Amino acid sequence: MKRLLPIFAIHLLLLLATGAAAQSDPLPSWNDSASKRAIVDFVGSVTKEGSPDYIPPKERIATFDNDGTLWSEQPAYFQVFYLIDQVKRMAPEHPEWKTREPFASVLKGDMKGVAASGEKGLLEMLAATHSGMTSEQFADNVRQWLATARHPKTGKPFNQMVYQPMLELLNYLRANGFKTFIVSGGGVDFMRVFAEQTYGVPPEQTIGSSLKAKYEMRDGKPAIVKLPDINLIDDKDGKPVGIYQYIGRHPVFAAGNSDGDYQMLEWTTSGDGKRFALLVHHTDEKREWAYDRDSTFGRLDKALDNAKKNGWLIVDMKNDWKVIHPQQ
């Protein structure tokens, strides 16, 4: 027995050391690749006081696209599925939709036609189906949909199709004094329903495309009511504008996955001092999808060509990530 005690003690120490090492890994779902090392090196260099690259905490602004960057976006943006359900539900009351795009494509099941309408078409559907709703009514409607809707391929709830490695990256940045924002072409009111619970990003740090709104009294109570007019399309060059208007600081870190994020990454890396930009490249056809230049949703072409020249990191989903979605 006496001989076994030292062996047991050694095994115990090894187990404790292994556990401590696992806990010290801020990005456990990332493979030990050049991408992971680049992220960790950047965070280390800008948060170490005395470093020539040091960035004060108040300036540590990190912006993330949502669709295709924080959760999946195939075979269509998830908000498109939501809007399709709303259009179909209301179609009997709107016979004019049979010939008016993008509604006609929705009713025919033509996803290419829906995609061709872009963010503007998405907002048009949003305006048509939800103008006149109060902010609370809209949020309740989205919550009910998220609770019951399922992805057509995986059968999972849409908010379970987030990327585990990106959740870890958000947490890692916040643990190092960064303030994380979502800056997406998706509807801001749609994302604010789930962003805090899903990503840890509160409503005031969620920026997206939006409709105009007005204040009025309803049944004797104050209410914010959605109007059918577009306020901001937070895509492409609209993203830096949205950041300027709602954040008021230049990001030092930005993450995207498509040409719609090009200007956000370009603007982020144009600032003084050390900056970081990354693109999630969808290369895993087995665990998710593989797409880039020819994709209807999340097209990655110009940004892919210019990433190296601009000094942007390309994250290869297939090779850089151990897992894609959280293990349920």
From TrEMBL:
Residues 1-22 form the signal peptide. InterPro entries: HAD-like_sf, HAD_sf. One of its GO terms (molecular function) is hydrolase activity. The keyword Transport does not apply. Keywords: Hydrolase, Signal. This is HAD family hydrolase. It comes from Microbulbifer celer.
